[in-house]
Design brief:
The complex is a heterotetramer, with 2 copies of chain A and 2 copies of chain B. Chain A is α/β, with parallel strands linked by helices. Chain A is built from 6 helices and 16 strands. Chain A has helices at 83-89, 128-134, 148-151, 175-182, 195-208, 241-244, and strands spanning 11-21, 24-30, 41-46, 62-65, 68-70, 73-78, 96-103, 115-121, 140-145, 161-164, 171-172, 187-192, 212-215, 231-234, 237-240, 247-249. The longest helix of chain A is centred in the last third of the chain and has 14 residues, at 195-208. Mean pLDDT of chain B is 94; it is low at 132-138. Chain B is of the alpha/beta class. The chains are: A alpha/beta, B alpha/beta. Chain A binds chain B through residues 3, 5-10, 45, 51, 55-61, 98, 100, 103, 218-222, 224-233, 237-238, 240, 243, 257, 259, and chain B through 19-22, 24-26, 28-31, 33-34, 37, 46, 54-55, 57-68, 70, 72, 75, 217-218, 266, 268-273. Bound molecules: flavin-adenine dinucleotide (2 copies), flavin mononucleotide (2 copies) and FE2/S2 (inorganic) cluster (2 copies). Residues 17-20, 46-47, 68, 70, 72, 74, 100, 128, 131, 165, 192-193, 216-217, 220, 242-245, 264-267 of chain B line the site of one flavin mononucleotide.
């Protein structure tokens, strides 16, 4: 099982650290909860003034993969894309943070002695970090970013190969181009990133018949299977990303939806 | 605050709103604590239909100021799948089970009611005549005579409590409630979601896969309270009030307006145990009220 | 973005919602800048009735999550008082004047329409058939045949544009809109407020002096958008969209859904010049759209 | 005229100071607007995160009498009673504050050479301060508070007579009892405070036929006459507190409503 069962309570945690990592924001908080599995996520909401932002939102909590977990602390990495991530990015040490999780089902071990190949795009690198640190020997890691500002987060990974869309850091190009170079029949791909990247990974690995585990995103309301809002199409019909994923087998998916 | 809801014994008056809490997924996520610390006094299951349904294409959610639009589209395993796979699990819950059903014709509803009601695990049924995502839902529940005909058709099929869930997208919900009562319903519940819509900020096309959806959450609370008050004054059967309940004070207001029990929907998305918190807050308010009334 | 609203020439498509901007009080508060920097492309005056009305007892306001309930109750000087005292002042405004009228019988509406329409200062009329605070408002605007009969009665009295303002508290707003169109209305406007209620947190009694009121603001935006889209698809006359508009993006969405013009209500309470800001934002969005369409 | 015409714009001001004065909070902000008249008020809203508080509110701006005005700065005194006042109480120097005003109609000069007698209860002392400093010779000032914590704000006034409900500061009793001692045929009363106090002032001054100007509060949505929400009953029917008041003649009022 790639799932740690979550405490049946939303719990109030305290922010213990907040800092910029390039264009992203690292958020650290206290947590007494159980050890999560790589690929699992949490629903977060600021304890104070969750709401009243742009367009009177956020109202619902937001989903975030955990980045690191150690010594009673959890870390998240945030990209400010709207009112929820903005509010979370403003949190300071001492502020309260509602936490539900760990949720969903994380990455599975590679099958048949395959070598894990980690492919991350942008903020999608987050769930790959705990996976990366759990693997020994270390896996190959390919990371793509928009530009050098975002690529600063690649420093979280030991020995990752980095590329940027604008060439301002690492190689110039898309991470799927890197993947194309590294894809062979002995690997199992673990990928997370924007929908277009994941869709490309799905198609590339499908063509080469290489297994791939994709950590998906989806608009969520609850994170624990209650609303049926977060579905993606699979060959067996719609499944809920929050309980059946977020990590899903590429070969089961019909497509990676654009949002 | 023990509550008798048309024959269903509840330990307290706070239950879940249909389609907003999946006990089976919760068991996977939170484990058996779901059974020992169940947050509601009854479990209302998500609407089931005769045939299995995939539901609407995503995206299915849009957050609004203090609320949510959903276009879930009633995905479910269908009657047979529900009875075979879900019912045995739901039977493990420590609270009475109310099964919510919807049909596209009266006969479909009759088939559903007959098949569900005969199961011992089932304490009561809720008829969804109000889902704004599926054409027929709107029509049946917006019209008093349609509602009456439906309830008359299914009433003889069971002696178990029948709850009719009203739609707020109607000119005269109290008239529909009276029609349901006169045709033999044991209770009415309201409000279901209000028809709503959002556009993709970039393209201007409808955001939701189904085009439109239903609005829920605090944004609709004042509308729910008005309808619950109006309906409560129009019928003598119990009313289950819902719509934007987030606190004991909200639940208390619905009960002051006449509701016998209160259902929590969207608030559970923020906190899976919102129902339990609301129950505690509600009982505290009721206690204070008794004290200040000198009782 | 010059807009022709059924014959009324507007410099841009953003106007005020009836009852949410008092130009005369604004002149007292802000002085003559109100005339030189008027925030709307037309001024829609607050509903007037045949006889003067004091309106509902206070309290008249309750703030809800992302919204407001009001039970103002249509206070106004009555037809004669309006024509004598208000109209001469409103004639000084730099924009076309649309007068909103409501009557408790068809004959009352006819009297109002005839008397108002003959005044040169008046560019158009809006019929309030939808006010949820006054009994007859609900009835006329919720029923297609009632609406048709009303519009047929008053249509021959004037050739000036007649706008029918629809109520959202109805099962089938598009049917009412079609009835209005077929009876000769030049435009429809929607949505009016949704029936809502709040209780006094201490006593549990209704907070509002009138018991219930109408909900407005961002909380109702998604509901407004759904109804505007539905009605726009059902009629060929122009639709004035309103309900929770706070930004150019909100206005843009209503227009993408089919509205020819947009009215700003509750947002003005936060900022008396919200209309002007929304207009700028809207025109910027429209400009970007033209650019990206390569025009 | 007791009315300064307001700029026809909601303007973004910057908080320049925020401090506790006993149980109340003093908020200072920059303002380029015109000089207000004593008794006028402003509509305030925090520029950031106005909303998302208790019960997802505040949504609308809130009305506040100004306390002091000098050197391009405005001061307000706040009592934290709900989500709006709480949010405003949290503002810190540098934060943005939306400001509309000055609004309404303030105090009029005493008629017939009468001596002004100022009577304030609780947070209702606020509009009396600019009136007090505008009067020469200084007027008699009677202030009542719940307790010493609230009475700390009396120090804003020179030479005020203070009483508290619990006797923890100044005289023990209600300010209306002080008024009863000071009321004679030569005074004109200027009062602001909770509804029950103002209703008592209205009745007392009515009985003795002494003119009284009452600065009323009322639930407001707009503050500039747009919503017709803030009415109080007068002998001529309902009037809007925001444009016809907030200062109204006691003798015109039917009653001071409880909320
Ligand atoms: C399992 C999982 C793990 C994730 N992990 C991370 C992570 O580690 N780090 C991270 O930064 N992010 C992560 N995300 C993404 C994160 O949850 C979103 O960025 C966040 O929810 C955005 O919220 P917001 O309020 O900032 O932006 P929103 O305004 O909600 O915008 C985000 C996107 O949602 C859509 N949108 C816009 N308005 C609305 C609306 N009103 N209602 C609904 N949708 C709207 C648009 O497509 C928009 O681009 C993860 C998501 C999932 C599902
Ligand atoms: C002209 C004027 C001048 C004022 N001057 C000052 C001043 O100088 N200093 C100061 O501290 N205050 C002043 N006030 C009062 C101040 O405006 C209110 O205290 C403030 O609006 C309260 O907002 P809130 O969100 O903090 O509390 P709210 O929650 O709005 O509660 C305030 C009161 O409003 C009612 N209420 C509760 N919930 C709601 C709801 N949902 N909708 C509507 N009403 C509700 C209750 O009666 C409650 O006690 C003034 C008011 C006016 C009209
Ligand atoms: C995501 C979602 C799914 C829902 N599914 C159903 C359903 O299957 N059957 C039903 O009768 N009501 C359904 N509802 C309506 C709720 O039961 C409830 O009537 C409504 O949400 C108002 O309550 P709330 O504001 O507390 O959420 C659903 C609501 C939401 C938000
Ligand atoms: C305080 C208030 C008073 C209103 N008075 C009227 C009125 O007199 N006549 C009318 O047709 N609509 C009236 N309305 C309804 C508005 O015109 C508008 O339809 C509604 O508020 C929705 O728009 P909004 O969400 O932008 O406010 C009033 C609304 C409010 C909030
Ligand atoms: S987010 Fe609610 S079911 Fe997945
Ligand atoms: S507050 Fe709106 S009219 Fe006075």
């Amino acid at each position: 099982m790639n799932r740690t069962v979550a405490p049946f309570d939303r719990r109030l945690s305290t922010v213990t650290g907040a800092e910029a990592i390039g264009a992203y924001r690292l958020l650290r908080c206290s947590d007494e909860g159980p050890e999560p599995r790589p690929g699992q996520f949490y629903m977060l909401a600021a304890a104070e003034r969750w709401g009243g932002g742009q367009d009177e939102r956020p109202y619902l909590p937001r989903a975030f993969s955990y980045l690191r977990r150690s010594g009673g602390e959890l870390e998240f990495l945030l990209e400010d894309v709207g009112p929820g991530t903005r509010r979370l990015s403003e949190l300071r040490p001492g502020d309260g943070l509602w936490l539900l999780g760990p949720l969903g089902s994380g990455f599975a071990a590679p099958r048949d002695g395959r070598e894990p190949l980690l492919v991350g795009g942008g903020i999608g690198i987050v769930p790959l970090l705990p996976l990366h640190t759990s693997l020994s020997p270390p896996a190959e890691v390919l990371l793509g970013f928009r530009d050098a500002g975002h690529a600063a987060a690649a420093a979280l990974f030991d020995g990752a190969t980095v590329c940027t869309d604008d060439g301002s850091e690492g190689q110039h190009g898309l991470v799927t181009e890197l993947l194309d170079e590294h894809l062979d029949d002995h690997v199992e791909v673990y990928a997370c990133g924007p929908p277009a990247m994941l869709e490309a990974v799905r198609l590339m690995t499908g063509e080469r018949d290489v297994p791939a585990q994709l950590a998906l995103e989806s608009g969520m309301a609850c994170g624990f299977g209650a609303c049926f809002g977060c579905v993606v199409p699979t060959r067996e019909g719609y499944v809920r990303v929050c309980v059946d994923g977020p990590v899903l087998e590429a070969r089961d998916l019909e497509a990676v939806p654009a949002h | 605050m023990r509550t008798d809801l048309c024959g269903i014994e509840l330990e307290h008056p706070v239950i879940n709103a249909s389609g907003t809490w999946d006990a089976i997924a919760a068991l996977r996520t939170f484990g058996d604590e779901v059974l020992t610390r169940f947050p509601f006094a009854a479990f209302v299951s998500k609407t089931i239909t005769l045939e299995p349904r995939q539901g609407n294409p995503p995206p299915r959610l849009w957050e609004t100021p203090a609320g949510l639009i959903n276009s879930i589209g009633l995905p479910n395993k269908g009657l047979a799948g529900y009875l075979e796979h879900d019912l045995p699990v739901l039977a493990r819950l420590p609270v009475p089970l109310i099964v919510n059903v919807m049909g596209f014709t009266r006969e479909e509803v009759a088939t559903l009611v007959a098949a569900v009601a005969e199961r011992d695990e089932v304490a009561g049924l809720e008829l969804n005549v109000s889902c704004p995502n599926v054409e027929s839902g709107l029509i049946m529940g917006a019209d008093p005579s349609e509602t009456a005909a439906l309830v008359e058709r299914v009433r003889p099929l069971t002696s178990k409590p029948l709850v009719v869930k009203l739609t707020p997208n109607a000119t005269d919900p109290p008239a529909v409630a009276r029609a349901a009562q006169d045709a033999g319903a044991d209770a009415v519940s309201l409000i279901n979601t209000l028809r709503g819509m959002a556009l993709h900020p970039g393209t201007g096309e409808p955001w939701l896969g189904a085009g439109t959806g239903g609005v829920s959450g605090p944004a609709i609370r004042a509308i729910a309270l008005a309808q619950v008050a109006q309906v409560s004054q129009s019928v003598s059967i119990p009313v289950i009030g819902m719509g934007g309940v987030e606190s004991g004070a909200d639940a208390h207001a619905l009960m002051a307006a006449g509701a016998a029990a209160v259902a929590v929907g969207t608030a559970s998305f923020r906190d899976p145990r919102a129902g339990a918190r609301i129950r505690v807050e509600l009982e505290e308010l009721a206690r204070k009220e008794r004290v200040s009334a000198g009782a």
